[in-house]
Amino acid sequence: MERPGGTMRPVENWGPWNGSRKIQSRETQGDQQDREPDPTTKIIPHMEPSVSQRHMHTFAARIFPLLAAGIFSAQLTLAQQPGCWTNFRGDAALTGVSRAELPARPELLWNFKTDDAIRAAPVVCGGTIVVGTVGGSLYGIHTDGTLGWKIATDNAIEGPALIVGETAYVGNLGGTLHAVDLASGNVRWTYQTENQIMGSPAFYASGDREVILVGSYDYYLHGVDLRTGKGLWKYETNNFINGACALYRGKAVFGGCDGLVHLVDASSGVSGAEMEIATYVASSAAVDGHHALVGDYDGRFSSVDLESQQVRWVFENSESNLPFIGSPAVYGDHVYIGNQDKYLYCLNKNTGELVWKYNTGGRVDASPVVVGDRVLVANMRGDLFLLDRKTGEPSWTYELGTPVYSNPAVVSNRIYVAGDDGRVYCFGKK
Questions:
Q1: Domain map of the chain by residue range?
Q2: pTM of the complete model
Q3: pLDDT below 50 — which residues of the chain?
Q4: Which of 8, 34, 126, 239 is 20 to 30 Å from 86 at the Cα level?
């Protein structure tokens, strides 16, 4: 663990970028009643909801008015079911914080071998772990380490899945978004974009509007109807979209290879603002209060005020300037982010000042997760670390021996982490 050595750059001349964007909304292109089915969508025959699905719909009906009131991310985080880590960062704001309690020294409980390397983070709900492989398979693995189901999606999966109710949503490098029954693995519908999907889908609901949000290398953020898989709208950017959307007051927050942080109405696809970061954003932003926290490919980590649309501060390690590939975790007054220079950084989220940094010994592409008074991080050398979140001192390490590209899921007092060796590992207390 090391103490401060990074720098902050002045940002007086940075601000919102006022270029125009073309939004393609199917609700503004003629009469909605007479419109033809979206040709990019493949519909699977409707299946009646199970009892547990109906319970989920009742649950959703209770929280959706809260979501529409502009407090989506906080309410969704608080309302998540026990035993669930439904997106790759644990909540709608992508903060990377787990409410689980881990043993002081977690032990390996089991590992499950898939058919190919894994680059995507696992998600968990209802006793099922969902994870995809670069071979194009999507797995539903029981939390006891046994196989529930496996399906082929016909192209590599590198983005994490999203679980909403009893359905998992996942994209692949063929540009196809799949809606898959969590219990059986049956495909409910598919939606086709024009290029690969690298990031996780996100979910937004307001009244009767339920939208799956997914970015693509076709330069568009797509708004897709959760139940039918029909395209609702498309928001155009200037380059590839790698990451997932965080939700802020009914708006999707995401970065892209156009060097902008976009703020887009999640219901309609209408642009709210575009804020310049100046270079590629390969990861997903986390939203804390009215600030988006995001790293870029030139080794800068920025805090962006979503209300004033100004960059508040920028942290930069002038010694390396290597990319921030992962997404940050935010808890209390601190933000945690890994870098390809092998360090995990802890910054003051209000000022951008370096609090501590820890050399993991390997490139850190995976996103950290805060668990109680510790922060969990993995590196490309195949090491797992639990560090004191205030001091950076390590309390536990484990050598997997295989690169870890994505963050673990931490739920029900267990760690689920996927390796490049194609295995899903489970740690906890024996």
A1: 7-428
A2: 0.84
A3: 3-79
A4: 239
